[in-house]
Amino acid sequence: MYGFAYGLEGLIIVTSLLFTVAWIHIDRQMILTIHRHVISRIPRYSITYDNANTWLLHVNQAHQDDRGYYMCQVNTNPMISQVGYLQVVVPPNILDIESTPSSVAVRENQNINMTCRADGFPTPKIIWRREDGEEIAVEKKKKVLVYDGEVLPLTKVSRNEMGAYLCIATNGVPPSVSKRIILDVEFSPMIWVPNQLVGAPAGTDVTIDCHTEAHPKAIIYWVYNSVMVLPSKKYKTDYAENSYRAHMKLTIRNLQYGDFGNYRCISKNSLGETEGSIRVYEIPLPSTPSKQVTHSTVETRESNMILGTRNDSVKGLQTDMYGTKNEIFTGSGVAGIPSSSSMSSSSSSSSSSHASTASVASIAGNGLSAFGSVGNAIDRKGSLAIGKSMFYTEHPPNELGSSEVFYESN
């Protein structure tokens, strides 16, 4: 392994110490040691032996250049040798200069390729995964948990693909290495208002809220009557942020008449600005219930109203009726009713008031018997016809022909 010390062992059986042992790097065609002496000027090489039978070549802090074939040679006649291969493995190392930077930005719905390259021996394998464990949408939005390859292609990137991606390089030699690349997807602000109408009674507290999504991070604030709302005894603001999402709340304490109206939640970043509107309206408190009128009282009032109406109607009809009678007896040209002149002469020829009263009663009887023939005259005057079938009171008379129903003696 690269950077570690290795030893190459040569087991040599000799019959005489007159023979010499040498170590040679075949690939470099370079003599490293002869017997107990190090010939190479590379200080990382050293030699040890045990009773002249076992010879060890030590390579300290091995480099990739040290990889290759080594020969242990004894100058016998004929010469004998033993060949071994030193494999120097190198753990993976990510090449930042050839890879995507640790943070990269792209506009939403655009394409981007993220690259990760590494060296090592054996050649490292590159895999991609999301740090949050979500799937990666590649190749026409095909979703995978792990993507193999140096280049990760992302097409029509959405805000949901924003986050940290891990490029991991492995080659079987520990340790594996990774690089964290943050993908920022930029888009203008968007606001979502859960409730656009919020009602509350005066004197209470009310909370309104709005949700926003934006990247780069947006400035979010509330406006009422064209004035920015700042935290105070009247207003309390709460703000919670998660990635590119934010949730903002505004609590209005002790609602008064001047607090009702439209509140605007505004979100602004370098790519745009948007706002949402919430109307706070007053909910009237329930009033104290009034005393209810009992059923018997209502019936009494209704009876009085009906009775008063009937009495007024009867009085009006009687008045109209008396006027009609007078017209009947004083009018002229009506069949069966004497004219005013004949009534005057008749009354003057009478010597006593009793006779005059009797004449009037007689005339009334005649007039009543002829009442049917004067109906048209009554209708022309706008009076009600007083017939048995058309006029009634609460207690209709048994006989309408009697003069006592209409007149009283003077």
From TrEMBL:
Source superkingdom: Eukaryota
Residues annotated as signal peptide: none
SMART domains for this protein: IG, IGc2
Subcellular location(s) per record: Cell membrane
Domain Ig-like: 92-178, 189-279
Keywords carried by this UniProt record: Cell membrane, Disulfide bond, Glycoprotein, Immunoglobulin domain, Membrane, Repeat, Signal, Transmembrane, Transmembrane helix
Alphabetized PROSITE patterns for the sequence: IG_LIKE
A single cellular component GO annotation: plasma membrane
Main location: membrane
Listed transmembrane segments: 6-26
Protein name per UniProt: Ig-like domain-containing protein
Taxonomic source organism: Glossina austeni (Savannah tsetse fly)
